[in-house]
């Protein structure tokens, strides 16, 4: 047994030995791999550090070279500037000498200057011209005067070769010369080709001109300077012909360029470091050396070229400077990279320290996650806070406005009614402000969703016009709206938000306009672009094309606009408007093939405008143009900000053109969808305002001298089916009626009404117009006199009493008001019953009459308001103040047709109460289905037990609306609710024609 054990142990050892050996080998190989890896990492790190050292060394070396180049540029430019200045000084002395010759030789009779005087003077003043080897004066002599000139001088004109000068148009013989160059006296300077060219260039330009460089007698390089001498003073802008005619002669001298440059370089420090060359580069392909060696330096070094301007407009020169020796590399280019190399060797320790901070970073990340969750919770709390604040503010405001509304239905004295109406207006203004602030909060939170329901755009604009009609009449301003015929009658979108944008823009215009007009236009985007793209106003400085407010002040000149006042946007004129009208008449097809329609809406006013320095912050929330504006006109400055956000949500853009003291024009686009009347479903009813059809086939004659305003009036008449013709004066209207002056009624039916704008009516027209109309009737031109209707912005009763007219229509015009006035003026009986207006109070009374309604609200005042409003329309109302009391009354079978329930109540809120109601209905309906063998009858029972529950909420947060839907509510009405909103909410539940 022992032997067996030893054998087993030996076998085990034999088996384990290779395993241990393999494990040791693996460990050794792993250690070797790690060592090799460390070697590679260290080697890579050293190589990387060496690469950094090389890059830094190159960087510092390049920096030194760059600094040397900057110094070279500075020194070269300085020398070039000084060389030009010294040359200019010499030229000025030559100029002074030319003035001397002109003064004492030509202005004195006889001349006070001769050769001896000139030679003596130039010899004494030669120290002023150290770089000129000598000066001489050559007189201009034409061939006709040559004989008399030679006779006077006592010698003949010779060429440069001392031969008699051949016959030519003119000569330039030297008559005065400095003693050093007296040998050129009598020589014709125009006999030399280059000298002749210099003479012609100098007298044509009036400036000193230079020749090409050549060797002087001193063996230095130099040039000949030629300066014209004129008999008369010439203007700086004199023509070449005038200069040639006024030329008396030419003053010239040999200029030593090498001496000039040598003296300059001798005066400056650092010349031993620089090598300077000056070239004449008039011929760039063959530059001429004026100073310096033509042999290039052996060691390449940085160079710089400076342009030289010696005053000669025909010749070009430049200076090239370079270092004599290459710049030395500083010690810092070696020490600094070496220090960085040492630092890199210590980075390993920094990496170790950074790794030790890794855990701390992870902890920080965890804390950041917690802070993120807190921030998200704070955002939710903010939304809840807004909902709560909205409810807490709007709930008492509901009571205030409701009680005021009920108070106004009682018998009040005029003073009491005025007080109550004022309080009601202030309360509605406060509600509007709350809505704007909450809209802004919803926009920032990204929770503002748009509805998609059919609506009538023209009816919305009529409502907005009605809203501001009183203010516009009080201010005496024209308020009008025009919608293109090509805009569809029914559109699909959010009518409330579209109305909010228009109301904000028109409200601002009414607020800031004291004279003139406010004009709202709606066109299709394609047609509007075609009419305006060629007339875009140029923008000079990025802000409406005006540099300051003084240039933007209106000149007072009347424009062909709605009111005759100038508009801020030059594109809004009668020509463009007429072009848009032509597109409508030609029935140009809309280019969009999709079901979307892009509208262009513009609101034009002639108000105070926006200051130029404030136009950049117009759309900033809670910002006014300036503090004085907010004090004078009031407002919070949030309306335009919300309008901009709403326009962008609708897929459009908004911009404006404004000129101080002229007005503003705001233009925005909106993308909506087409909608046919046949496609309107019961689930999305559209609130139509049908216009009466009694006027179709009638015609009218309109007297208006302003074509834009006349077009607006024709638009409203056309909506009623009335065709019209426009004339500018009453005389023209009488001519149309009588057929005189080429006028004819063949294109239209006999007009039954004569519409006259108030500014076309004079105080002496009353009797004469009536008598002339009677005369037209007696002559047989018209069997029936048309009704005379005056269009005015004042009170109609007062105007009708003062003017001999049949009726007065008060502006601003809208289709419904125009129809009502024409019914009365023409004596037409209205065939359409008023009950067809679905959003009137009569329709609401028809829905609520005899209905049992349960109102649940914990606020006693709100209960009284809701009960009073509902009872006013014939409903039977029962009120409770808690959700539990409501559940006690709401037992199946129901005795109520509708339940209006507040959502925020103690003990049991509206959400919980509604969930209990729906659970109770579901249980009863399931029992009815289980106990009924008829499937159809069971479906009927299931549909029967469903009480319409509408939330009465002061919250306007999207989350509240979603919660109402989730708990089983059928809809909601916001507090304080209005009649139209209440009608829309209860119509689909209480209207027999729409109920299931």
From TrEMBL:
Gene3D superfamilies: 1.10.287.130, 3.40.50.2300, 6.10.250.1190, CHASE domain, Histidine kinase-like ATPase, C-terminal domain
Transmembrane segments: 40-60, 329-355
Assigned EC number: 2.7.13.3
Source superkingdom: Eukaryota
Annotated keywords: Cytokinin signaling pathway, Kinase, Membrane, Phosphoprotein, Transferase, Transmembrane, Transmembrane helix, Two-component regulatory system
Matching CDD domains: HATPase_EvgS-ArcB-TorS-like (cd16922), HisKA (cd00082), REC_hyHK_CKI1_RcsC-like (cd17546)
PROSITE patterns: CHASE, HIS_KIN, RESPONSE_REGULATORY
Compartments (UniProt record): Endomembrane system
Membrane topology field: Multi-pass membrane protein
Gene Ontology biological process terms in this record: cytokinin-activated signaling pathway
UniProt-listed SMART domains: CHASE, HATPase_c, HisKA, REC
Residues annotated as domain CHASE: 109-320
Catalytic reaction list: ATP + protein L-histidine = ADP + protein N-phospho-L-histidine
Pfam families: CHASE (PF03924), HATPase_c (PF02518), HisKA (PF00512), Receiver_CRE1 (PF24896), Response_reg (PF00072)
Boundaries of every Response regulatory domain copy: 699-826, 852-990
Modified residue annotations for 4-aspartylphosphate: 902
InterPro entries, A to Z: 2C_system_His_kinase, CHASE_dom, CHASE_sf, CheY-like_superfamily, HATPase_C_sf, HATPase_dom, His_kinase_dom, HisK_dim/P_dom
Keyword set includes Lipid metabolism: no
Purpose of the protein: Cytokinin receptor related to bacterial two-component regulators. Functions as a histidine kinase and transmits the stress signal to a downstream MAPK cascade.
Subunit structure: Homodimer.
Protein's name in the database: histidine kinase
Taxonomic lineage of the native organism: Eukaryota, Viridiplantae, Streptophyta, Embryophyta, Tracheophyta
